[in-house]
Write a structure and sequence with these properties.
The chain contains six helices and three strands. With 174 residues, it is mainly alpha-helical. Strands 1-2-3 form a three-stranded mixed sheet.
Length: 174
């Protein structure tokens, strides 16, 4: 019964991610044709995550990085899901796997939120990577002043208080 509750909770969470992804896909005017064709070919769970990451990106390097990260996370999520649904592991191992999935989902949503907030500051594109307590932010800009970098750091610190934030800029010439 306990396993069934976790499975239904996980299904509800995936459904929520799917709805949010579809909403952001329909809401964005800069929809990538590559994202659409990729999602038609991939399995449904991987497609949901990738589409939400690829929409409205102006930098090919950022698209490639997002795809790679999404692929790695989907593989990890599949392994953790198998661990949860398998009867071969102890309950505490299954709980740990469930918490790791929760952490992955939280990181993905935080990265997406921060990217949207940074773009709203006037940057054409931004890539946010969360790895534990370290957050790396790369923005597309010809030049990044200290005050603009501090704006980004302040924005990230509002969302993740104890994070070590690193801000880089990349010229949009690739």
């Amino acid at each position: 019964m306990h396993l069934q509750k976790k499975s239904s909770w996980f299904l509800a969470l995936l459904t929520l991610v799917a709805v949010i992804s579809v909403f952001s896909l329909l809401d964005s005017p800069k929809q990538s044709k590559e994202a659409i064709s990729w999602t038609e070919e991939a399995d449904q769970k991987a497609a949901i995550q990738t589409v939400s990451k690829e929409v409205s990106s102006s930098s090919p390097l950022f698209k490639e990085t997002r795809l790679q990260v999404s692929h790695e996370r989907n593989q990890l999520r599949q392994k953790l899901t198998q661990k949860i649904t398998s009867g071969e592991y102890f309950i505490d191992e299954q709980n740990t796997a469930s918490m790791e999935i929760d952490t992955l989902l939280k990181e993905e949503s935080t990265e997406g939120l921060l990217e949207m907030q940074i773009k709203s500051l006037g940057f054409p594109d931004a890539l946010v990577r969360i790895e534990g307590a370290n957050i790396s932010v790369t923005v597309v800009a010809n030049k990044l002043s200290k005050s603009r970098a501090n704006e980004i750091i302040y924005l990230v610190k509002k969302e993740c208080e104890d994070a070590n934030v690193q801000v880089k800029f990349s010229a949009n010439n690739y």
